[in-house]
């Protein structure tokens, strides 16, 4: 009787053994010496500029440190921040009305809105402020009463409109014109197909505006509005020509008495840099908030998150 070993065929041996697998090719980044040279030159020039500023005795950094937190400077900074907040808030409130008029189907409203924006965007802000400051030459008195009839209350314009109120009116009217175009551009950036889909679902206008239009329009509005905020902060410096005690006018009063022009201008410059930096950081995170869901890959990590990830890698290694 045949045994199982005799029935089963003998295992066949390959004539030629299989070659070993080839090692995986390593991807090497392309060398870019030009970029390294350009970066080194840029860093060298930046270091030279910073060193020249720090070591230059004409800046009088001791005087800058003494006046940086002086009471008069802080009072001027407070007025600058107040002017920025008030004029920009009122500008966006009135700008929303103008943007709605500009998008209206009523030709009269569209024309009036366009005319307002055309006038205030076409004239320099300083000219507008000086015009409103001298408004008493055109209207010596302001009254409240019946049109083409008797006036019940009359007040002199120079007693009613002072330098600070003139600055608020002039800057607000200017910011209104720019805010109207920013809001109009944000609304027009929303895809019209989504509005048609919402109408087909029977959604009300208020819900469509709150759930569809505003979240998507803010993606286009926030970056430009952030730039407007920073521009409005710096633009308040022109009210110094009206003797309004903002940040610039406060340091001007000091250097006109002490003749320390450069260090006092550095005080104002450092405060403007500090405030605009904080506003830029806030704008960055507001943009991230409204950018949620805009891309499939999600939002990129923030600088703080990247720093934490780098620190964890260093600690782990």
3D structure, described in words:
With 317 residues, the chain is mainly alpha-helical. The chain has helices at 4-7, 33-55, 61-68, 71-102, 107-122, 125-133, 157-160, 163-188, 192-200, 205-235, 247-258, 261-290, 303-316; strands at residues 141-145, 151-156. A two-stranded antiparallel ribbon has the order 1-2. Helix 4 (71-102) crosses helix 8 (163-188).
Helix tally equals 13
Q: Describe the oligomeric state of these chains in a short phrase.
A: single chain
Structural class: mainly alpha
Shape, principal axes of CA atoms:
flat
How many strands, which pairing sense, and closed or not: the largest β-sheet?
Answer: 2 strands, antiparallel
Distance between the termini: 69 Å
- Overall pLDDT, averaged? 84
Unreliable stretches: none
For the biggest β-sheet, the strand order reads 1-2
Evaluate the radius of gyration.
Answer: 33 Å
- How many β-strand runs? 2
Helical percent range? 55-70%
**Strand-and-helix sequence, N→C?**
HHHHHHEEHHHHHHH
Percent of residues in β-strands: under 5%
Q: Helix and strand layout, with pairings?
A:
Layout: H1 4-7, H2 33-55, H3 61-68, H4 71-102, H5 107-122, H6 125-133, E1 141-145, E2 151-156, H7 157-160, H8 163-188, H9 192-200, H10 205-235, H11 247-258, H12 261-290, H13 303-316
Antiparallel strand pairs: 1-2
Helix pairs in contact: 3-12, 4-5, 4-8, 4-10, 4-11, 5-8, 6-8, 8-10, 9-10, 10-12, 11-12
């Amino acid at each position: 009787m045949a045994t199982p070993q005799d029935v089963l065929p003998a295992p066949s041996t390959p004539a030629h053994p299989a070659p070993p697998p080839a090692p995986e090719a390593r991807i090497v980044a392309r060398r870019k010496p030009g970029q390294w040279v350009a970066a080194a030159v840029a860093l060298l020039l930046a270091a030279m500029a910073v060193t020249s500023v720090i070591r230059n005795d004409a800046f009088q950094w001791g005087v800058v440190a003494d006046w940086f937190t002086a009471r008069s400077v802080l009072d001027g900074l407070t007025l600058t921040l107040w002017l920025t907040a008030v004029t920009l808030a009122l500008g966006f409130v009135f700008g929303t009305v103008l943007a709605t008029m500009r998008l209206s189907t009523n030709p009269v409203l569209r024309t009036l809105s366009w005319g307002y924006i055309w006038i205030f965007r076409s004239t320099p802000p300083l000219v507008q402020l000086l015009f409103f400051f001298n408004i008493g030459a055109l209207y010596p008195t302001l009254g409240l009463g019946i049109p083409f009839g008797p006036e019940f209350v009359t007040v002199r314009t120079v007693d009613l409109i002072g330098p600070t109120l003139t600055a608020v009116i002039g800057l607000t009217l200017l910011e209104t014109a720019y805010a109207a175009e920013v809001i109009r551009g944000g609304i027009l950036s929303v895809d019209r197909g989504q509005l048609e889909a919402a109408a087909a679902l029977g959604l009300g206008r208020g819900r469509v505006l709150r759930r569809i239009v505003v979240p998507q329009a803010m993606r286009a509005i926030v970056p430009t509005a952030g730039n407007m905020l920073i521009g409005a902060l710096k633009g308040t410096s022109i009210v110094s020509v009206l003797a309004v005690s903002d940040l610039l006018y406060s340091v001007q009063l000091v250097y006109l008495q002490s003749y320390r022009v450069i260090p006092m201008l550095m005080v104002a410059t450092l405060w403007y840099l500090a405030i605009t930096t904080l506003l830029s950081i806030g704008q960055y995170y507001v943009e991230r908030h409204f950018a949620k869901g805009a891309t499939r890959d999600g939002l990129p990590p923030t600088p703080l998150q990247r720093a934490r990830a780098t620190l964890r890698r260093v600690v782990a290694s």
